[in-house]
Amino acid sequence: MKEGIAELKGEFQARLLFWNNIKSKKIKALLILFCFGLIGLKIFTTLLTFDWLAGLV
C-alpha cells in the first residue's frame, strides 16, 4: 500500500514538474483546452451510448 502511494506521489510530482517547466501560456492554455475537450467528448459519447441503449428497450 505504501509503495502505491509513493508511486502516485512520484507520478504527481513528475507531472507538476512538467507543468512548471512549460513557459508558454499559449501551450498551457492549449493543454487545458485539450483536456476539457477529451472530458467533454467522453461525456458526450457516453450519453449517446446510453440513449441508444435505452432506445433498444
Biggest sheet details? none
Strand content: under 5%
Report the principal-axis shape.
flat
How would you spell out the order of helices and strands? HH
Topology overview:
Elements: H1 2-21, H2 25-56
Describe the fold and architecture:
- It is a single chain.
- With 57 residues, the protein is an all-alpha fold.
- The protein has two helices and no strands.
- It is flat and about 50 Å long.
In short:
Helix content is 91%, strand content 0%.
Structural features:
mainly alpha, flat, 2 helices, single chain, 91% helix, 57 residues
